[in-house]
Input
Amino acid sequence: MYEGVVQDLIDELGRLPGVGPKGAQRIAFHLLAADPADVRRLAQVLIEVKEKVRFCRTCFNVAEAEECRICQDPRRDPSVLCVVEESKDVVAIEKTREFRGRYHVLGGAINPIEGIGPDDLRIRELMTRLADGTVTELILATDPNLEGEATATYLARLVKPMGLRVTRLASGLPVGGDLEYADEVTLGRAFEGRRLLDV
Amino acid sequence: MHVAHLSLTDFRSYPAVELPLEPGVTALVGPNGQGKTNLVEAVGYAATLGSHRVATDAPLVRLGAPRAVVRVRVVRDGRATLVELEINPGRANRARLNQSPVPRAREVLGVLRTVFFAPEDLALVKGDPAERRRFLDDLLVARTPRLAGVRADYERVLKQRTALLKSAGPALRQRGAGVDLSTLDVWDAHLAQVGAELLAARLELVATLRPLVSGAYDAVAPAPGGTALDYACSMGPDVEPATGRDELAEQLLAALSAARPRELERGVCLIGPHRDDLVLRLGPAPAKGYASHGESWSYALALRLAAYTLLSADGGEPVLVLDDVFAELDAGRRARLAALVAPAEQVLITAAVAQDVPEALTGAWVDVRDGTVQRVR
Output
């Protein structure tokens, strides 16, 4: 145990995801040794992030204004909507530069064990967005695990009466890798999901 | 295949032990509590990443030691592979193949295959259906590694669906019919889909095992009525399980929707492969409850022998491990079992009393006493 505020700092840092007690201690002593200006800047950013950043009122991505940059951008195709679980998934898809449509961030996946049902996700907001008929294709890009699949199935059933084109991201082998390094579960599923090669 | 060398560090009672082994029969003999079973348990661990005696890894590490290490050199068709496993209770285990680390410990599965006969096998016949389901599923995964993923997915879907049933039931009773059950439909669909895959694999396995078990039982202990395996499905006795996976999924879905009121009432999932059983019949009666102690033993042996035949036919004859089984059998059964296993590439036997090992199984002889091993023959 350290005295007073040093221990408080270690405790607070230790509550962050991915930081254990040893790591918290290392960060704390790094901060103690660092230039006061650097530390002040960090503190300032921490306060600002809580004050300034909010969720986009349309897609619920993190934003600095009422709407996020993607929702404000008139060049983005409003007819294609990609549904993801978290804001970080938006960033991941943006990096591909493949997708020119818009997003909807659910804020998680259906997970009864953790008590998360459809009402806890931004599904009602999604339905409101779809109601005006601008969107013609819905891409379900939830995680390829059970909870993500269940959420995708739930949404697909929910929007079925609307007659939209509903697609799901493909899953299988990673590109650029070697077949021999794929684990048997992934490889087995890739076999199940094999497709006809049109030549 | 056979195990050419076993080396343990801080595993169970052993601080360190080296045991060179050869193809053919090796008997590990010594009084009770000297560490015979620990040696074969380690061989089994290298094959399945699990113990046949305990469900968690913690008891495998010698008391007071931080981790245990199991090293097994496996020779298959003349080629040696070194499997090294570091057992870290509470953390991920680490594995190396021929000295190079592998990303996941389960990548070593399949290098060594074993079929284990142990006193615990009696539970296959006398125990709960869960024991028999595990027997089927373990065998499925050993033959088709992909099914490990299906099995894990099923467990997960089941947990999620059960959690939903538990919370939806009381809500329904409180608020009446206004509760939205559409998420339950989604989990039903997933349970039916994954469940059908598991069920189809099990049904096919039972059909393959049926003649093998019957043949093995007759060879160990000829019974007048013969034996039969039935797969008892949770969908009810009047539902004849379909053969195709899609048809099975439809059947499961129909059964789930029929059972829904009862499921919501009780908050448990009543339909699915997790409620099925493998019914072992001896003559006209089920073995459970009707078979004698000796007959139950013969049945357990027959199941393991059938698994051995099946795995051998797939290629890569497994190592046979007979942990303390001869003491339980009469002279006739003992001799017949010995004759059945003697031709195997490698047989590891543990026995407390030297006389329990049948004469047909002569081979190497290792004295196990007080945590030390000594080759005496």
